[in-house]
Amino acid sequence: MPSSVQPSRSPDDPSPRPGTGRDRRVSVTPVTPVTAAGGTRPLVAALAGAAASLTRLVVPIECPGCGMRDIALCPACAGLLDGAPIRRERDAPRLDRLDGRAPLPVWACAPYAGPLRDVVVAWKDKGRVDLTGVLDAAAHHAGVILAPGVRAAVGRGEARACAGSGRDPVLVVPAPSTAAARRARGREPVLSLARALAQGLCAAGVEATPVRLLTQRGHDQVGRGSRGRGERLTTVRAPRRGAAPGPSLAGAACLLVDDVLTTGATLAACERALEGLGAHVLGAFVVAATPPPRQGSAAHEVHLT
Ligand SMILES: [Zn+2]
Fold first, then answer.
1. Which of 107, 114, 157, 158 makes an SS bond possible with 85, Cβ 3.0 to 4.6 Å?
2. For residue 215, is it within any domain?
3. How far is ligand 1, taken at its centre, from the CA of residue 131, in Å?
4. Mind listing the pLDDT tens digit for each residue in 190-232?
5. Of 225, 219, 274, 220, whose CA–CA distance to 251 is shortest?
6. Structural domain count of the chain
7. Is residue 265 helix, strand or coil?
8. CA of 76 to the centre of ligand 1 (A)
9. How many A from CA of 224 to the centre of ligand 1?
10. Residues 162-196: pLDDT tens digits?
């Protein structure tokens, strides 16, 4: 079982979030995967970061959300991620369960639309590694906000984890990407989000650790529309029961993490894979959720308080 994650940033830290300042010299945050079942790719991540830095020497940088020149991310676009995470599972039809249970709770920082959509696409698929700090800060903030709810959910469920007790940590599980997608990006953006969310939970007193438990087989998803990606992802896999070495997942409390919620097919597949091993999936966090096509979606918003 991986050890718990120590927070790298206090929620009370008054300093600006990384990457949100006005300084053109944005910091590059290469991903150092924390894995339970896989290896690290530090060289690939370093090369990707170096390539992005070199690109910015010859290509003027601009805010991916609005096009403002000479700034990595303008304050207005960065501010789109500042809100408290909101429940969005009712807008994802593929999360519906056939057994009558309520859909898996999913919290999102913001709607996947407008400038934020362009920011997420730039970060994930267009090489804007320098935005990692901003997205990770949003996940960390969400971890702090969600911690009381996670603690309460563990307390009233059958999950084995005892948040804050020093016993089994809540497992923060990133939605998987294909090996081809990892090679194309040279990094694992969702794993980075999972690590940040776990750090936020830890900062708020809930023991949590990021663990890459799921794998995906299928087509390269890089550059594919998010809705199409969700529709095609049907082969999420978890370690086979009894596979050694590794912790038992029976009764383990898990939180899923993904970048975007569209139809919910991805998270539903992840939930099935984990529940197949006996884990208790408490819910999921995503950076952004696709708004429903109809009007009046605000009626479904439920604040976590
Ligand atoms: Zn902007």
1. 107
2. yes
3. 12
4. 999 999 999 999 999 999 999 988 988 765 444 444 444 444 4
5. 274
6. 1
7. helix
8. 6
9. 23
10. 554 546 899 999 999 888 888 888 888 999 999 99
CA of 68 to the centre of ligand 1 (A): 6
7 in a domain, yes or no? no
Burial of 114 (0-12, 13-18, 19+ CB in 10 A): middle
Q: Is residue 236 part of a domain?
A: yes
DSSP 78-136: HGGG-SPPEE-GGG-GGG--TTSPPPPPEEEEEES-HHHHHHHHHHHHS--GGGHHHHH
Q: How far away, in angstroms, is 57 Cα from ligand 1 center?
A: 20
198 domain-assigned: yes
Contacts of 261 (CB under 8 A, 6+ apart): 88, 89, 91, 92, 106, 108, 112, 267, 284, 286, 288, 289, 290
Separation in Å, CA 229 to CA 103, 175, 263: 20, 12, 10
- How far does the centroid of ligand 1 lie from the alpha carbon of residue 190, in Å? 22
Domain that holds residue 128: 42-303
Scored b (16 or more CB within 10 A) or e, 169-206 reads: bbbbbbbbbbeebbeebbbbbbbbbbbbbbbbbbbbeb
